[in-house]
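<goal> How does this chain fold?
<body> The protein record starts here
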Amino acid sequence: MATRGFTGRRPAPELADRIPPGQSLTDGFPVLSAGPTPRVPLEEWSFTLKVGPRPVGRWMWSEFAALPQTKMTRDIHCVTKWSKLNTPWTGVLVDDLIADAGLEPPTPFALAHSYDGYSTNVPVADLVGGKAMVATHYEGKPLTPEHGGPARLLVPHLYFWKSAKWINGLQFTEHDEPGFWELRGYHIYGDPWREQRFSGD
């Protein structure tokens, strides 16, 4: 489990409204993962949208890259107490994935699944309305494997463990089913502004 003890710069007063309680600024981009970094060749990568166990959309890399591309610059916050401001991403909005599959969001919740077996739960309301994307580029360059490439979920307003690396699918669920870290004591929702790091926070 990731530790609580990150040490970074305290925010300047003019940035206080952008740094959640208990967080410190970093200029770097720390790499934290639950296990080994998978290497997924683009010719083998795919992304699947499911409603429960039923696939309702699937894209290979070339098909995914042909979807509308959106740029998003956001502050991000890790449960290990670092924050990084103005991070620039490019990818496909979850809204555009759902639209390309010809769907309206069918359930209130979703599970993100990754190539390494990782999963995390996110309410659908936090994925739509331009709030979240499947990111493929950072700072204009393809995502490196260490940071979740070829593609990762980006849900910047929640703690960063919700932004699943190496994502290969979203599964709509009727109930809020806990994922990897949630089953191991992390908060079911993970709002940085309410310091929802661990169960009971």
